[in-house]
Design brief:
This protein has a single domain (3-62), classed as Multidrug-efflux Transporter Regulator, Chain: A, Domain 2. The chain is 55% helix and 17% strand. The chain contains 3 helices and 3 strands; from the N terminus they run βααββα. The protein has helices spanning 6-13, 17-24, 44-62, and strands spanning 3-5, 34-36, 39-43. It has a 3-stranded antiparallel beta sheet. A hairpin with a 2-residue loop joins β2 (34-36) and β3. α1 (6-13) packs across α2. The chain starts with a strand and ends with a helix. This is DNA-binding protein.
């Protein structure tokens, strides 16, 4: 299992760290798998799935 901390989540999603803080607190963002001294960590597969769904929702809303 690969994991991501907040910095990796921000980089993967292509957003600033500040924007990532907002995104990870949304109810539709995957729950962290643990909290370490570096902060919360997420399963990378869960973050990839979230990103794919987020891109789809954004694309769908642009067509409206």
């Amino acid at each position: 299992m690969r994991v991501m901390a907040l910095s990796e989540v921000a980089q993967y999603l292509g957003v600033s760290r500040q924007r990532a803080v907002i995104l990870v607190d949304r109810p539709d963002f995957p729950a962290p798998i643990d909290t370490l001294t570096v902060g919360r960590i997420w399963d990378a597969a869960d973050v990839r799935t979230y990103a794919k769904l987020r891109r789809q929702r954004l694309a769908d809303s642009e067509g409206d």
